[in-house]
Design goal:
- The complex is a heterodimer of chains A (769) and B (171).
- By secondary structure, chain A is α+β, with helices and mostly antiparallel strands.
- Chain A has five domains: 152 residues, Four Helix Bundle (Hemerythrin (Met), subunit A); 52 residues; 180 residues, Histidine kinase-like ATPase, C-terminal domain (Heat Shock Protein 90, 2-Layer Sandwich), CATH 3.30.565.10; 153 residues, CheA-289, Domain 4 (OB fold (Dihydrolipoamide Acetyltransferase, E2P)), CATH 2.40.50; 140 residues, CheA-289, Domain 4 (OB fold (Dihydrolipoamide Acetyltransferase, E2P), Beta Barrel), CATH 2.40.50.180.
- In chain A, the strands form six sheets. In chain A, strands 20-24-25-23-22-21 form a six-stranded mixed β-sheet. A five-stranded mixed β-sheet of chain A has the order 2-4-5-7-6, with helices on one face. In chain A, strands 15-8-9-17-16 form a five-stranded mixed β-sheet.
- Chain B has 171 residues and is mainly β.
- Chain B has two helices and eleven strands, in the order βββββαββββββα.
- Chain B has a six-stranded mixed β-sheet.
- The longest helix of chain B is centred in the C-terminal third of the chain and has 6 residues.
- Classes of the chains: A alpha+beta (769), B mainly beta (171).
- Chains A and B meet through α12, α24, β16, β17 and α25 of A and β4 and β5 of B.
């Protein structure tokens, strides 16, 4: 083959695109059998593949395309009409051609697979219903038609096909800025794969001349190096900006360089973008095949295929989306009979759409199938020990659905060839999260399921918060940051409450675990942020935690505010760069970036930090049953002082939130005391009252303005607020839970902070609180 | 600043001879303390003067920090750590020898750059120091030159220092 390799590369790219087009055409043809334009288009595509394979000497491919072309020729000429069998055979041909192309790409040869049987099948289908003796003609016929397609199409049809082809072709174009759809200011950028090639589809090319002429194929590596160079230029620009000068000529030039650099950066970033159609375009075929395999009928709609996404991300969403589609059809959509029985239309609807939403791309897959049986998920979660029965009962339906993303979780009653082995949704989530995305699922029994995937537009460039810790700087992806909170030594809601074991902060009633970045990273032996830091609240994997970083030092307590926060952390747009295998293996850093001053800054991997810090699982902690003493040994407890000074503990897993009220907020509701919260009431139970078995010891009249610390717990689905004098700390248990020493209101004891501490009997609190 | 180009060392007894010249490979030699090491010159990207490093908390001890070079983030390594040689005392700025053993680039903090020498493979002996980080040793006229296997050396640094909570470790 020698020097053909470059041309073969082009041939492969082109043919792959053509095959995508072929899939689309075949699907359209199935919907409207006998559409002459589609047939002509398919014929041309196969014909082109045949011609090219002859040129490169790929004989297997040539033979296959030849048989396919023959069949298509007869279809086109009306000598055959399309039926399921023919469509199936044509699909098999497309798959076979793909397989050969893959083999060529990987090995340079056509591979070992034998497709002669398929060729025979194609020939057999072609000769059905036709006059005998045609077999002998088969070889000759394609030669006859070879001249036809471009030239000899009946003239009266010519106008229509051009339009149709132009439309379909435009849909496949993956060019980011082809013909400048978005901003006229940006030059028509270079385009990675997939402009329909003139050779492949003559009429399409004719109709889209502007596209073909304003785009070029460019090596992806070249684009990457352009982006790198732009990054360098941005740094040089920043250096230039920092030079102090009064010279107006220099200032003017610097100003221009500044604006040009900005524009260049923006443009360069665009070259990384591709329409999501690149992934979506394969799905109609996937859906069709799956529906056939499962004996279901599916109407599949795609919306927003022109939404743009970073090229590197586009590839990483392909597998997760394919899996979701598979699930939707195999498990979601019911059989036609079952649908009719519940009064739904025969064919299930599956809608795949993509759209931009607050700086991210949302991809939504909705089906109108049977939905997910939340109760089954609940049962299964309990059976698998993911959650206790009581805790499961307390979870909202959408929370329960999250268990679907746990490894090995499947509710499918039977394993089918398509899906149902229980591997999958966890992989979907892992893959999506690996690119900084999130997945959420919502389902209504009987009405359908919607899965939403949110992914960032690009990973290469993102807004980040740069924080200072012990003289070092670190970047935190802004997408994960929800809030900055200054740490106060005294007063209001932003005091650090834990001790060394498990520091927490109370933020609007939620208990948020904290990580002191200085000691965590080994930068200081003793944290300096306890009294004068800034908490960066981050959320990752449904878990919220606070990273405590240096605040501005030495400022007066009263003066702390926005300005100080800005001093301790600043927002900038960073270009993410890999840090190499050795450091990536640490799992603490997602990469590094170069800031405007030329300094290199590490980007924190928030998931890695959470793992490394062994944060308490606030959300799904198992309830401490007597049997699970081993698990309980590591459990964390909220330790409080009651109003008469008794030291008690509440399992942190049961704590929903902490609240502060004033004594006058408390109202009587019959025998109970309640406190208004939103549009409902939270019943209150005094800790001392519980311990004294109902005898109200310390319920004496309090000052109306006296503060009331309330630990709101949730047990068996009911919430109750336990009033205490003071919340001391969150402490990890040092012994297993002992339920032998029970007294009234006490469930047992556990060693906390070197003391045996009574654990409040929450079940009792709920029942007689 | 005694930078890379200002070689103070006496010229090397220039290389083996004639016959296998086509076989001979060029090695970039440098000093760590009193010992002479070399890396395949084909792997060398650039020799830089000392730069300001960004520390990488929790990384292995041999990883000194990060620098920025031509759009890449380059970890700088102290080869003396894995090779267990003692450094030359003092705080004079040391050159970074930036190499590309694979996809990633790494900077080696060396004490002093020496010549590029040509070595006939047949004159390379098995490593004497008993360390797997060397490809072999070459006896030059006046000293032994240890030929580094940079990839292995870098891999040896992949182990993180104690995980989170190594609150005492200082670089």
């Amino acid at each position: 083959m020698g020097d053909n390799s470059e041309f073969i590369g082009e041939f492969l790219v082109e043919s792959t695109e053509n095959l995508d087009q072929l899939d689309k055409d075949l699907l359209a043809l199935e919907a409207e059998p006998g559409d002459p334009q589609r047939l002509a288009s398919i014929f041309r595509t196969v014909h082109t593949i045949k011609g090219n394979s002859g040129f490169f000497g790929f004989s297997k491919l040539g033979a296959l395309a030849h048989s396919g072309e023959h069949l298509l020729g007869r279809l086109r000429d009306g000598k055959l009409s399309l039926d399921d069998r023919i469509t199936g055979t044509l699909y098999s041909m497309v798959d076979a051609v793909r397989a050969i192309l893959r083999a060529i790409e990987a090995t340079g040869t056509e591979g070992e697979q034998d497709f002669r049987e398929l060729s025979r099948q194609l020939a057999a289908v072609a000769t059905e219903e036709s006059t005998p003796g045609l077999e002998g003609q088969a070889a000759g016929e394609p030669d006859d038609v070879e001249q036809e397609p471009p030239a000899a199409e009946p003239a009266d049809r010519a106008a229509a096909p051009v339009v149709a082809d132009a439309e379909t072709a435009a849909a496949v174009v993956v060019a980011p800025v082809v013909a400048g759809p978005v901003r006229p200011a940006s030059p028509p950028a270079v385009v990675p794969p997939t402009v329909p090639s003139p050779a492949a589809a003559p009429s399409a090319a004719a109709a889209t001349i502007p596209t073909a002429e304003s785009t070029v194929r460019v090596d992806v590596d070249l684009l990457a190096s352009i982006l790198d160079l732009v990054g360098e230029l941005v740094l040089a620009r920043n250096e230039l900006k920092s030079i102090e000068t009064e010279d107006p000529a220099v200032l003017a030039a610097a100003q221009r360089i500044n604006s040009v650099t900005n524009a260049l950066q923006e443009t360069a970033v665009k070259t990384r973008m591709q329409p999501i159609d690149h992934v979506f375009s394969r799905f109609p075929r996937t859906v069709r095949d799956l529906a056939k395999a499962c004996g279901k009928e599916v109407a599949f709609t795609i919306d927003g295929a022109d939404t743009e996404l970073d090229r590197t991300l586009i590839e990483s969403i392909r597998d997760p989306l394919t899996h979701l589609i598979r699930n939707a059809i195999d498990h979601g959509i019911e059989t036609p009979a079952a649908r009719l029985a519940v009064g739904k239309p025969r064919a299930g609807k599956v809608l795949l759409r993509a759209f931009n939403e607050s700086g991210r791309v949302t991809i939504e897959l909705a089906d109108d199938g049977g939905g997910i049986d939340v109760e089954r998920v609940r049962e299964k979660a309990v059976a698998r020990g993911l959650v206790s029965t009581a805790a499961a009962a307390a979870l909202a339906d959408d929370e329960v659905l999250q268990f679907i993303f746990e490894p090995g979780f499947s509710t499918a009653r039977e394993v089918t060839s398509v899906s149902g082995r229980g591997v999958g949704m966890d992989v979907v989530r892992t893959n999506i999260e690996a690119i900084g995305g999130t997945v959420e699922i919502h389902s209504d029994r009987g009405l359908g399921t919607t899965v939403r995937v949110h992914v960032p537009l690009t990973l290469a460039i993102m807004p980040a918060l740069v924080v200072h810790v012990a003289g070092e700087r670190f970047a935190i992806p802004q997408a994960a940051v929800s809030e900055l909170v200054p740490v106060r030594r005294t007063g209001g809601g932003s005091r650090i409450e834990g001790l060394a074991v498990a520091p927490v902060m109370r933020i609007r009633g939620r208990l948020v675990p904290l990580v002191f970045l200085d000691t965590f990273l080994g930068l200081r032996a003793e944290t300096a942020c306890r009294d004068a830091g800034t908490v960066v609240l981050v959320r990752v994997d449904d878990r919220e935690y606070g990273l405590v970083v240096d605040g501005s030092t030495g400022s007066a307590q009263a003066g702390r505010g926005c300005r100080d926060l800005l001093e301790s952390a600043s927002l900038s747009t960073i270009v993410v760069k890999p840090i190499g295998g050795v450091l990536a293996a640490l799992g603490m850093y997602a990469g590094a970036t170069v800031l405007g001053d030329g300094g290199v800054v590490l980007i924190l991997d928030l998931r890695g930090v959470a793992r490394g810090a062994e944060l308490p699982p606030l959300e799904r902690a198992a309830e401490a049953d007597g049997e699970t003493a081993v698990a309980a040994a590591r459990e964390r407890y909220l330790v409080c002082h009651t109003r008469v000074g008794r030291r008690i503990a509440v399992p942190l897993a049961d704590v929903v939130r902490l609240e502060q009220y004033r004594a006058r907020d408390v109202q009587a509701a019959g025998p109970r005391q309640v406190v208004r919260r939103g549009d409902g009431f939270t019943p209150l139970a005094d800790a001392d009252g519980l311990l004294a078995a109902g005898r109200s010891l310390a319920n004496g009249p309090a000052e109306p303005d006296a503060g009331l610390s309330v630990v709101v717990v949730r047990v068996s689905g009911a919430e109750v607020g336990i009033t205490v004098e003071r919340i001391i700390d969150v402490i990890a248990a040092e012994s297993s839970f002992q339920d032998t020493l029970t007294a009234a209101g006490v469930a047992g004891t556990v060693a906390l902070g070197g003391q045996a501490t009574e654990v409040l009997d929450l079940a009792a609190a709920v029942s007689n609180g | 600043m005694a930078d890379a180009e200002g070689l103070t060392h006496e010229p090397h007894p220039v290389t083996p001879t004639t016959s296998a010249a086509s076989q001979a490979r060029r090695w970039c030699s440098f000093l760590l303390g009193d010992e002479c090491f070399a890396v395949d010159s084909g792997l060398v990207v650039e020799v830089l003067r000392s730069r300001r490093l960004t520390r990488v908390p929790l990384a292995a001890r041999g990883i000194l920090g990060l620098i920025h070079l031509r759009g890449r983030i380059v970890p700088v390594i102290d080869p003396a750590e894995p090779l267990a040689v003692s450094r030359r005392p003092g705080t004079t700025p040391r050159p970074h020898l930036v190499i590309a053993p694979g996809e990633d680039w790494y900077g080696l903090l060396v004490d002093e750059m020496l010549d590029v020498i040509e070595i006939d493979p047949v004159r390379i002996e098995g490593p004497t120091g008993g360390t797997e980080l060397l490809q072999g040793t070459f006896a030059a006229a006046d000293r032994l030159v240890h030929l580094l296997d940079p990839e292995r050396m870098i891999q040896s640094l992949a182990r993180p220092r104690l995980a989170a909570g190594s609150r005492t470790g200082g670089v």
